[in-house]
Sequence to fold (349 residues):
Amino acid sequence: MAAKTLRTPESLAEAGLIAPERVAALAQVAAQYAVAITPAMTGLVDPADPADPIARQFVPDPLELDVDPRERADPIGDDAHSPVPGVVHRYPDRVLLKVTHTCAVYCRFCFRREMVGPAGEGTLTPAELEAALAYVAGRPEVWEVILTGGDPLVLSPRRLGELMARLSAIAHVKVVRFHTRVPAVDPEAVTPEMVAALKSAGQAVYVALHADHPRELTPAARAACARLVDAGIPMLGQTVLLKGINDDAATLAALFRAMVESRIKPYYLHHADLAPGTGHLRTGVAEGQALMRALRGAVSGLCQPTYVLDVPGGYGKVPVGPVYLSQAADGACVEDPNGGRHAYPPSLP
Ligand code: SF4
Fold:
């Protein structure tokens, strides 16, 4: 296993993840979009599999330079709802707080790929962080703060503890949620000190783990999640539906079961956003709906996330899963998990 996070095409070649002759082509991609693969993820890649689902998430691809005119740098419209740097206030009762735009890994399909990484928006300066916290403190309607980015769990336990202390001083903030890949992609970073820092504030703290393939839930990743859950931090799962990586029912079922076994409730299956150069990893919505239908009934209800689409332009996130109820002339028609159709309420005998 590579001992360090791989950040260049040359290092990918040295680690055997790409053929040396691909270095030049991938350098063009890496010049535009950041690259990072942690040792934990490198160790999961099967170099003999050209379609390896872990490699496809993190190893750059020349197809990333093919941009569809409908793709956009800010696909979910963060900028339209950003009153001060680092804050996105799209919905009344919650804000995103993007303290850092650094990540432990850089996903090739990232919806914020133009903002993250060394050439991205960086980490908030102390003055920007003060302004962001003042914004939250001045909005009594903000019930929940969602730490995202970037990946907030790349911050040191000391900085996380400071941040939690500041948020705990804002009485109307009752819930703090972290969005992260760290427990899976860098499980050793989830130290007792980090767990204590997250717990320090007294508000309800949730950690939403982004994981896209069951292989990511290694014994070390499950142990890292257990450290969080055992400390009283509920965990949610977020998954991006990705072509050739997890767009089959068996893979999704295995992933959602692995999450539930790890006491992580699958929360959202995201339709992949229209981020630039990500068309080769995006499915159609109809395929996502068919996958959700295949899971319904076949897999425990605990393993069913909501399939959602972020409406391009910053209009918000909506469920786009299959619909089982339709109107009929004399009432409603409901479809069962096997496709059978039934009047509701049932006709009189
Ligand atoms: S960890 Fe999240 S923010 Fe970072 S590159 Fe991946 S999807 Fe983007």
